[in-house]
Structure formats: structure tokens, C-alpha cells
């Protein structure tokens, strides 16, 4: 495989139904998972943790009930980690709003949204299960309704069985 611009920062790149997933490791731990557009080519794992992450991400793409067990590098502020722990408790096929999580944590919806956008471990910490009160909301710090990132969020929610999910405050599905 030839080296692709930007791929050198990843310890592995695997194909994903929506493009690719970049895997970064550091000091024997997973440092980051990154949603990548389809033009990224696969890259073989450069270390054992990258291999473990690649296998587990691929298993999740096959089975939405798969549970990750990866050594994560510590990341985020204390508040962000509280938000991420709360998100991890959302069952597959379910969603919560930024406001619901904010109320639970005695915080503000915008702060919860910012913590979601700062998530270093998407899929492992399923921030795609958090929506706005009036619709899908943003994803990976993007709110372009027709953009790549929200397309991933829609795919992940469908994959997890939220296809028929209706928001209680609106008559149309979050899926176009």
C-alpha cells in the first residue's frame, strides 16, 4: 500500500460502511478513533493495541451489540468524563437528548454537546446516541444536515436499531 497524505498519524485504518476508521495508539493504549471519508485506504495495524482496536471496531460493524474492551488513554476533563460515562449507559437502540443528560448531570445542554464533540473514542463512547431536543443534532463537532458526519450518525443509529425511532416532539423520523 502506498502512503496516503494524513494516514501516517494512524496506527491502523480499517474500512467502515460509511468510509473508514482511523485508529491512533500511544504508549500501549488507544489514543483516538477518527471517522474518515471513503478516500482513505486501509492500513495494517502497526502495534498490538491497534490490531485489537481494528478487530473490535470491525466486530461492532458486524454486530451492534458488540461490547468494546480496549485500553483507553486518559482523555478529557472531569466534566467530559462524567458526560461520557453517562453516554455509555444509554442502551443500544435508544437515544437521549443533550438536555436530558444535562439535567441528569446538573449542567447545560450546550456543555453536554461540547463534551460529545470532544469525544476521543467514538463508537466506544457512543455519543451518536445523543440528539438535540428538536431533531438529530450535531455530530463530531459538525451540524451540516447533509454532511459526512451526520450521515455517519444516521448510519450508526440505524445499525443499532433506532431506524424507526421517532422523536416524541415531532411527527417525522430523524431519518430522511
Automatic annotation (TrEMBL):
What PANTHER family does the record point to? METHYLATED-DNA--PROTEIN-CYSTEINE METHYLTRANSFERASE (PTHR10815)
Q: Which intervals of the chain form a coiled coil? A: none
> Tell me, what's a Pfam family for it?
DNA_binding_1
Question: What is the protein name for this chain?
Answer: Methylated-DNA--[protein]-cysteine S-methyltransferase
Q: Which organism is it from?
A: Massilia cellulosiltytica
Q: Tell me the ranges covered by the Methylated-DNA-[protein]-cysteine S-methyltransferase DNA binding domain, including all copies.
A: 78-162
The EC number on file is 2.1.1.63
- Per UniProt, which keywords does this protein have? DNA damage, Methyltransferase, Transferase
Q: Name one GO biological process term.
A: DNA repair
GO molecular function annotation:
methylated-DNA-[protein]-cysteine S-methyltransferase activity
Task: Note the InterPro entries from the entry.
Answer: MethylDNA_cys_MeTrfase_DNA-bd, MethylDNA_cys_MeTrfase_DNAb, MGMT_N_sf, WH-like_DNA-bd_sf
